[in-house]
């Protein structure tokens, strides 16, 4: 049984050391307890009666574990998604569209008025009579198309237009000749109603066209349709688990949801952006291009063009991918479209980030080390044991994390004084820092609200925020009170003027006691365990227990294991299966016989001029159904009157922004390190992302690859999955393979849930060996990874790359996501299936003469172009190949990044078929926001020479130790460094064609890059 997908549910339990007295069972009136809107019964179902007193910051506080919330408190209305509703109205059939008039040209483009072309259809809201159209060529590569209600007044202000102060809005560039060179052309027509198209001028290809469709623009429903070619190749439209290439039968709903990682459904973040790549067969005689709509031919030559489309709209929405078009629907807002001309993925991604959503934050060097986490590290002693075990087995450990275990009653910015006291924490963290290691904790998105009947239930984080008026409200102006881990909670209102100040001061005050090095933001969709303001009138019950089964409790023991476990561990699997069956039988007996009735589907009829934000007439295919389920309800109200309906998808973005600003002030001068769960376009400016609540299954491991590649497109290059799986019991084989795969992601963390088996890499001997082997590669390549990341930060380039993007003229790679590339130079081919000792993979570019070298034996691979190659992959081995033409800077692997940075340098030059190679290296202090000195090193190999030239003021003291050149076809007669013959340390392998030069420390004692050098052979 897989642990229920609701995140981190823990039984409210008082620490044994805290229990001073126990009271007898009490009775409590439930008259003030609200019932569900659909009258699903009382809020409270159980009473434990246990009380405890504990000394918190010198004050004796008493807490009572009172009530368990019923599961029904998180049930919503029975909604049938529009895409599955046979009675759903088809807007394209009944709506009149618009006519354009009053066209006025300007230096950027033109404006026009769009008037409703017939009788209003009001199909899922109230039609807008008059719209404004603005078309602007904003830069040499970006075209903007905006359609907005013409008259927004106080009476019709329900049309929420996303302000630039909240999410960056691309600005008009300075008009110059470059804008005239944009490879995009906008054309429009009023036949029969307003429609438009965006063309690529250089090829005449229609990139986007609404011809033959009507524009629908209502206060709660916007729809536009664009034609797509047959067998199109779209990427993006996240966040969801899906293959990297989006198929033509997908409803790509975007509504931030806290509910595990189901396949093909909306997850935690919202990224309304797609990349469209089209392949053309090139006629060898005429060079004419023909769009490829079927399978590629092995003998043909192809060229591709890519473009990007971004809809700057934060409402709940769902692009629907059909066989011949994309139908884009939103629950409000405006049409704020941006087109990027590419012409390849690399350029589209740069154009999208640089000028449209913002470039990703630069990370500190240490963040690329290995991170270990667990929901279940119960105290500082257990944390120290974990750190000691990594050292004992010689496994690198950079950072150890705490999940919500460290909190006092699961309250933000407050440690449990019994299990995680501040004085012991100071000693523990000081020890980490002295050893070059780091400490990161989780911070949740909801704030506990104290029980007003308990004078000792003090919580200054809430009272300070309340006094500063920084929490979301109900429509009547009272505080909106949901339920999360600590019980009834309030939620920060990031529209409030004082919210970031309150958040900053809360973090700063807490960090004076706990020297955290980074923050992990969770539950930021924003999540709530009940529908509506369920705590209103019931705060005397606080703290309350979450309304669902908890991991490790009787009746909710996790007996799930990965596929293949029944073969490798047959006896244990049989016992687990038997116990799982017994548990299921026991749970069924406890439930008894019950009669259930299904309520009819709720279908909302639009009312002219009135928005139904709780149950909008158009029902998106939200994985949780009702928009209020497991989330703050849509009618929650912000200080500026904006309803949560309009900005739900932005909470994660806003809390990351606030946390970034808070860390800037709290850990001054250093780059903030933040990992967040819910994201929106542009969140990469503040934070990285992890893949959320995945499972200890081979399927989850596989899907981590396309998920990582998606976030490369979305401008969030710092990405990793919960290695070995979050929910479910991992096993030796899965964890072995996964620890090696994740070693080549940018963010590398192992994390699992309370109640499941431990899965630290030292648990199994083979995983120890596999982890150390992969980590040795990763840590030696940290200079390469850091250089890639600096380029992403400066230019918007990608770090993790799909083969289709790196080899854009090979249409056979369009949906390849079982292999991936780390930068341009490394090809990773992981094992993604159980019980196998080999893996198949392709070597892209072989048709064009690209040479690939095996990382381990450093010899060139013999590969047939386009063919799957079977590679040995015994347990503990991951296939890594270096692309010919690459130069990779390295340092020695160590147990921490500090050790690595203080070690000698090496260089690997993997020659192309023509004997050339290039590469680069970026060095700075690894932590500061503003650098006093940096260094850039360029490498070039040609004509049997490898050159290194540096520029910058950073003084790198570590010497150069070794140079390895792959693909040296003939044994060199002489090898020299800067013209001086090397009399020792030179080795050439005639079989592998590898030249190794070692022992260069004396020749480079002043520093590897202190002066330019050339190696000649």
TrEMBL record:
InterPro entries: Gal_mutarotase_sf_dom, GH, Glyco_hydro_31_AS, Glyco_hydro_31_C, Glyco_hydro_31_TIM, Glyco_hydro_b. Belongs to the glycosyl hydrolase 31 family. It is an enzyme of class 3 (hydrolase). It catalyses: Hydrolysis of terminal, non-reducing (1->4)-linked alpha-D-glucose residues with release of alpha-D-glucose. One of its GO terms (molecular function) is carbohydrate binding. Residues 360-788 form the Glycoside hydrolase family 31 TIM barrel domain. Residues 1-21 form the signal peptide. Residues 796-888 form the Glycosyl hydrolase family 31 C-terminal domain. The keyword Signal applies. The keyword Glycoprotein applies. This is alpha-glucosidase.
């Amino acid at each position: 049984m897989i642990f229920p997908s609701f995140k981190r549910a823990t039984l409210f339990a008082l620490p044994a050391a805290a229990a001073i007295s126990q009271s007898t069972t009490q009775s409590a009136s439930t008259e003030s307890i609200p019932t569900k809107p659909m009258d699903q019964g009382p809020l409270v179902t159980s009473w434990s009666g246990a009380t405890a007193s504990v000394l918190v910051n010198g004050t004796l506080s008493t807490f009572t574990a009172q009530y368990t919330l019923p599961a029904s408190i998180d049930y919503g209305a029975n909604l049938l998604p529009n895409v599955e509703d046979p009675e759903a109205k088809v807007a394209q059939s009944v709506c009149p569209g618009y006519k354009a008039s009053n066209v006025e040209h300007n230096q950027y483009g033109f404006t026009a008025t769009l008037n409703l072309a017939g009788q209003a259809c009001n199909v899922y809201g109230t039609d807008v009579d008059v719209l404004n159209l603005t078309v602007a060529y904003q830069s040499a590569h970006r075209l903007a198309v905006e359609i907005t209600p013409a008259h927004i007044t106080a009476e019709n202000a329900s049309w929420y237009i996303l302000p630039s102060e909240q999410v960056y809005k691309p600005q008009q560039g300075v008009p110059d000749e470059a804008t005239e060179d944009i490879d995009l052309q906008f054309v429009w027509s009023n036949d029969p109603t307003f429609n438009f198209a965006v063309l690529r001028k250089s090829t005449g290809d229609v990139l986007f066209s609404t011809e033959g469709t009507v524009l629908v623009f209502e206060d709660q429903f916007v729809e536009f349709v664009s034609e797509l070619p047959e067998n199109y190749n779209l990427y993006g439209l996240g966040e969801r688990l899906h293959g990297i290439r989006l198929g033509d039968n997908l409803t790509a709903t975007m509504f931030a949801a806290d509910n595990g990682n189901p396949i093909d459904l909306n997850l935690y973040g919202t990224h309304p952006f797609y990349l469209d790549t089209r392949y053309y067969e090139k006629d060898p005689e005429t060079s004419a291009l023909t769009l490829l709509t079927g399978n590629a031919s092995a003998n043909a030559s192809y060229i591709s063009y890519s473009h990007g489309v971004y809809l700057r709209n934060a409402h709940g929405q769902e692009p629907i991918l059909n066989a011949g078009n994309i139908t884009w629907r939103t629950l409000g807002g405006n049409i704020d479209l941006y087109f990027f001309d590419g012409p390849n993925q690399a350029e589209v991604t740069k154009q999208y980030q640089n000028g449209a959503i913002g470039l990703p934050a630069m990370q500190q060097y240490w963040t690329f080390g290995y991170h270990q986490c667990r929901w279940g590290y119960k105290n500082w002693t257990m944390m120290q044991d974990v750190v000691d075990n990594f050292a004992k087995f010689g496994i690198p450990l950079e950072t150890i994390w705490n999940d919500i275990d460290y909190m006092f009653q699961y309250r933000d910015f407050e440690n449990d004084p019994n299990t995680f006291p501040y004085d012991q924490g100071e000693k523990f963290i000081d020890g980490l820092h002295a050893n070059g290691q780091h400490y990161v904790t989780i911070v949740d998105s909801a704030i506990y609200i104290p029980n007003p009947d308990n004078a000792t239930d003090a919580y200054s984080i809430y009272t300070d925020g309340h006094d500063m008026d920084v929490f979301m409200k109900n429509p009547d102006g009272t505080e909106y009170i949901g339920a999360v881990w600590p019980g009834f909670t309030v939620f920060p209102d990031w529209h409030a003027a004082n919210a970031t100040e309150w958040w900053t001061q809360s973090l700063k005050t807490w960090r004076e006691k706990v020297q955290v090095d980074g923050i992990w933001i969770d539950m930021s969709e924003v999540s709530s365990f009940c529908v509506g303001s369920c705590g209103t009138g019931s705060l005397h019950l606080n703290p309350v227990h979450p309304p669902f089964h908890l991991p490790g409790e009787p009746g909710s023991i996790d007996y799930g294991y990965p596929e293949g476990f029944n073969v490798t561990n047959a006896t244990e699997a049989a016992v687990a299966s038997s116990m799982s069956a017994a548990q299921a039988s026991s749970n069924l007996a406890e439930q008894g016989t019950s009669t259930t009735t299904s309520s009819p589907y709720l279908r909302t009829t639009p009312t002219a001029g009135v928005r139904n934000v709780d149950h909008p007439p158009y029902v998106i295919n939200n994985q949780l159904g009702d928009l209020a389920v497991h989330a703050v309800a849509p009618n929650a109200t912000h200080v500026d009157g904006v309803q949560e309906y309009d900005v739900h998808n932005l909470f994660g973005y806003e809390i990351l922004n606030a946390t970034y600003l808070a860390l800037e002030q709290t850990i001054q001068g250093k780059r903030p390190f933040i990992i967040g769960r819910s994201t929106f376009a542009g969140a990469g400016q503040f934070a990285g992302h992890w893949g959320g609540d995945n499972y200890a299954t081979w399927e989850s491991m596989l899907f981590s690859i396309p998920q990582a590649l998606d976030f490369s497109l979305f401008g969030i290059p710092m990405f990793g999955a919960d290695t070995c799986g979050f929910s479910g019991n991992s096993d030796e084989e899965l964890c072995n393979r996964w620890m090696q795969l994740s070693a080549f992601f940018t963010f590398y963390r192992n994390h699992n849930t309370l109640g499941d088996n431990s899965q630290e890499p030292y648990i199994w001997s083979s995983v120890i060996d596999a982890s150390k082997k992969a980590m040795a590669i990763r840590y030696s390549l940290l200079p390469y990874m850091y250089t890639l990341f600096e380029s992403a930060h400066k230019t918007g380039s990608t770090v993790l790359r799909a083969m289709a993007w790196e080899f854009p003229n090979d249409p056979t790679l369009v949906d390849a996501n079982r292999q991936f590339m780390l930068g341009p130079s490394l090809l990773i081919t992981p094992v993604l299936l159980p019980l196998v000792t080999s893996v198949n993979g392709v070597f892209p570019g072989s048709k064009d003469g690209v040479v690939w070298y095996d990382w381990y034996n450093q010899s060139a691979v013999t590969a047939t172009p386009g063919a799957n190659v079977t590679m040995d992959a015994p347990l503990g081995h991951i296939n890594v190949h270096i692309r010919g033409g690459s130069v990779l800077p390295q340092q020695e692997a160590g147990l921490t990044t500090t050790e690595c940075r203080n070690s000698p340098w090496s260089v690997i030059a993997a020659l192309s078929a023509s004997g050339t190679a290039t590469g680069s290296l970026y060095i700075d202090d690894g932590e500061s926001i503003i650098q006093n000195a940096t260094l850039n090193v360029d490498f070039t190999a040609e004509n049997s020479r490898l050159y290194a030239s540096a520029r910058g003021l950073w003084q790198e003291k570590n010497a150069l130790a070794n140079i390895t050149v792959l693909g040296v076809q003939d044994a060199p007669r002489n090898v020299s460094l800067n013209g001086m013959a090397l009399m020792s340390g030179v080795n050439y392998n005639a079989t592998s064609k590898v030249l190794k030069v070692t022992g260069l420390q004396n020749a480079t004692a002043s520093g590897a890059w202190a002066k330019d050098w050339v190696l000649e052979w």
